[in-house]
Amino acid sequence: MRFLTTFQLYDFFDTLVSLATAFVFGTLIGAERQYRQRTAGLRTNVLVAVGAAAFVDLAMHLDGADGAVRVIAYVVSGIGFLGAGVIMKQGMDVRGLNTAATLWASAAVGSCAGADMVAQAAALTVFVLAGNTLLRPLVNAINRIPLDEQSSEATYQFKLTVTPEALPDMRDRLVERLESAKYPVADVDVVEHGDDLLEIVATLVSTAIDPAELEMVVADLERQPGVRHATWEVSTKD
Prior knowledge:
Elements: H1 2-6, H2 9-35, H3 42-84, E1 88-90, E2 93-95, H4 97-114, H5 118-133, H6 136-143, E3 154-162, H7 167-180, E4 185-194, E5 197-204, H8 211-222, E6 227-236
Antiparallel strand pairs: 1-2, 3-5, 3-6, 4-5
Helix pairs in contact: 2-3, 2-4, 2-5, 3-4, 4-5
Family: Belongs to the MgtC/SapB family.
Domain MgtC/SapB/SrpB/YhiD N-terminal: 19-139
Pfam families: MgtC, MgtC_SapB_C
């Protein structure tokens, strides 16, 4: 058996140290994710870290540092596909980006472990845990700050619910009314709203606005024949 001639106890223990390091640090990262009930929890982060360590360690033994560098490049791109699986889009909201980034960081921890850089793997684990825990209060504090519509850039949508008979006139009037208020319209869509009603959705050119001015447009359009409801909403730019 070729195994009997190629097996070296020192190399085997070196691999065990790399895998054990990735396992321990992956467990620390994954435990925090599991506690917060994220899609990629304890087992996923451990497997990502250990798998990355195994590939890098294998390349180190077969082709030295040059082989490890090439494998690390593939690990970085390969984890991107895995991270895409935990990202979900729900309407205007995108969820799972932080979980995907944590998986990416777990792979980096595993790569460090596989390259026998245990201290660097430990340091990176500390920074990943700090990013997911210590920064949380700061994020919550920032999110509680009210949005200043007049000083922030965002995407605004003006929605007008009308009867089918009023659609042609109200679509033109909506665009005219918004542009007369100095809010140019980037796009206009019509969506079926059920119960024989249609919804005109006008997306404004990204700009800062005065909420009071849009409320005046709402009040004006709601008085028009065939209009059932008028409103506007904002989504901040990422």
